[in-house]
Specification:
The protein is built from 16 helices and 17 strands. The protein is of the alpha/beta class and 537 residues long. The chain has four domains: 156 residues, Resolvase, N-terminal catalytic domain (Rossmann fold); 117 residues, Alpha-Beta Complex (Hect, E3 ligase catalytic domain fold); 123 residues, no CATH class; 58 residues. The strands form six sheets. A four-stranded parallel β-sheet has the order 2-1-3-4, sandwiched between helices. A three-stranded mixed β-sheet has the order 9-15-16. The radius of gyration is 33 Å and the shape is extended. The two termini are 44 Å apart. This is Recombinase family protein. Keywords: DNA recombination, DNA-binding.
């Protein structure tokens, strides 16, 4: 008979606790290692220990054992431990090193504080080859070493450098092959009547037929919602009203929006055809994929007949006539910056159409009916721009860059060695004391060396972050990039603008009052910090 195994439930798995896991023996060993570390020279390499564990079980190496083993490894390598990045209950498959809470902070913000990154075993550090390749590239860029206790990874050794080359090559080949395979699979799937890959359009779900083949069938709940929405559209009911009823009835989720509903109702996939997304002018639309015979490829039974689909589209067109095209950047400028004073939700643009024209209003999301609509959003945007420029426009644009102190340290060591040499030879019996001329020349040289040493800023001998000014002000940056650039910077910095709408008797439009909220550390926040991992998938 085969063996049966059972995975432990969350309740059966141990929860790591710092206070209870450290035994008296562990603490004694820790103190011994710290005493040995205190004897290291001041210029000893600085080590960061990376400890990670998904779930603590009887078969896993505890975080305490990982840390102690890594401290012993640091002692063997002659490194001083400057920190322990302990990320527990974190999956290495799902969360790469730079996104983990503790290790990510060290990598993104505290890189100057360590020279070598130690980890217990490769699977304790990463589980994806692409993540390891990314970390190796990062270490080479910032001149950090990467050492594993139980694997042949050490960027300073010949074997380690060979391993880096192999890993990087494999990762590059795998990425190219994956891209080719995925593209080829999608291209092939588009031409087939069978459902091979992809997420079904709204209204459908996957199932197995009697032969075990994957097919598309109607989703009964979505089918009801679509046909109800079609009947309402024919009667002239607004999409906004349909969304409210569908959400309240439970046929659709709370996140349904009018744009999503309209996109679903206009999707030609509801005719049972295979479709692909067509992006045109910022609008998300789907188009029918034609087969080799020039006819649409049918992949499922239709939700709507052609007559039902055409009359639905005509009904939607009657209400959507003369609506402005969708903007790629969205209808609302400064989304996330403009907030309602009363409910503190985002102010968003809503478009109203009547027989006299199309009107835009800024409304919030939580006040009843969106609160009092603020007409003329552009006037509010312009006032916000003027207020921000008056406060932050003259601030210099600074970018945080990594400065290495290796060259300055070498120069300091050279100068100190030379000064020690001249001081020794100027002592009685030294080579420069034999004649007055040689003594005077040596003393001048010594004074020059001491002056050069004093001129070196001690901070330049350290790896550090420096803020580099590119000569521009934020006023110039925002004039070049427009409102989108300003909005992105304000969101990054955390600047908010509260909108208060006050009713005035006899006047339909409310009075608008704007209050700009600037964080106290805004100058520090304005510094642009480049993300080394932004392009990593």
């Amino acid at each position: 008979m085969g063996k049966h195994s059972r995975r432990r439930t969350a309740a059966e798995q141990k929860t790591y606790n710092v206070e209870t896991e450290w035994t008296a023996t562990d603490l004694a060993l820790l103190e011994e290692l710290k005493r040995a570390e205190a004897l290291l020279p001041k210029n000893a390499p600085r080590a960061l220990l990376s400890v990670r564990l998904s779930v603590l079980t009887d078969d896993t190496t505890s975080p305490v054992r990982q840390e102690l083993d890594l401290r012993m490894l640091a002692r063997e390598k002659g490194c001083r431990v400057v920190g322990v990045a302990s990320d527990l209950n974190v999956s290495a498959t799902k969360v790469p090193p730079w996104k983990r809470k503790q290790l990510g902070d060290w990598l993104n913000n505290r890189a100057p504080e360590f020279d070598v990154l130690l980890f217990w075993k490769l699977d304790r550090f990463v589980r994806r080859l692409s993540d390891l390749s990314t970390m190796i590239d990062w270490c080479l860029k910032y001149e950090k070493n990467l050492i594993s206790k139980n694997d042949s990874i050490d960027l300073t050794t010949t074997a380690g450098k060979i391993m880096v080359t192999i890993i990087g090559g494999i990762a590059e080949i795998e990425a190219a092959n994956t891209s080719t395979r995925v593209t080829s699979l999608w291209d092939y799937a588009k031409t087939q009547e069978d459902w091979i890959i992809g997420k079904p359009a709204y209204g459908y779900m996957t199932a197995r037929d009697k032969n075990g083949k994957v097919v598309l069938v109607h989703d009964p709940i979505a089918y009801r919602a679509l046909h109800w929405a079609r009947r309402m559209a024919i009667r002239g009911v607004s999409a906004n009203r349909m969304v409210t009823v569908l959400v309240r009835s439970g046929l659709c989720g709370a996140g349904l929006t009018t744009s999503t509903l309209l996109r679903r109702l206009r999707n030609p996939a509801l005719l049972g055809y295979r479709v692909e997304e067509l992006k045109n002018g910022g609008q998300r639309r789907s188009k029918v994929v034609l087969g080799n015979d020039g006819k649409p490829i049918k992949v499922a039974e239709p939700v709507f007949t052609e007559y039902e689909f055409d009359t639905l589209g005509a009904a939607l067109d009657r209400r959507m006539k003369n609506q402005p095209p969708r903007q790629p950047s969205g209808a609302t400028k400064f989304l996330g910056v403009l907030i309602c004073t009363d409910c503190e939700s985002n102010m968003m643009v809503q478009v109203t159409r009547n027989d006299f024209g199309i009107y835009q209003y800024l409304r919030c999301q939580k006040c009843k009916s969106g609160g009092r609509g603020a007409p003329n959003p552009m006037a509010i945007y312009e006032q916000l721009v003027a207020d921000v420029l008056s406060v932050l426009g003259d601030e210099p644009v600074q970018t945080r860059e990594y400065a290495k102190g290796a060259e300055a340290r070498k120069e300091v060591e050279r100068l100190e060695g030379s000064i020690a040499y001249y001081m020794r030879e100027l002592e009685p019996g030294g080579r420069y004391t034999k004649t007055r001329f040689t003594k005077e020349q040596a003393e001048k040289t010594l004074d020059k060396l001491i002056s050069d040493l004093e001129a070196i800023d001690p901070e330049t001998t350290k790896d550090r972050w420096v803020n580099v000014h590119d000569g521009k002000t934020f006023r110039e940056r925002w004039e070049e990039g427009g409102m989108e650039a300003m909005a992105a910077d304000l969101m990054r910095v955390g600047v908010k603008c509260k909108i208060t709408r006050t009713k005035i008797k006899g006047i339909r439009a409310p009075q608008i009052h704007m209050k700009l909220l600037i964080p106290k550390d805004v100058r520090e926040r304005l510094i642009i910090k480049q993300d080394d991992f932004a392009q990593v998938f």
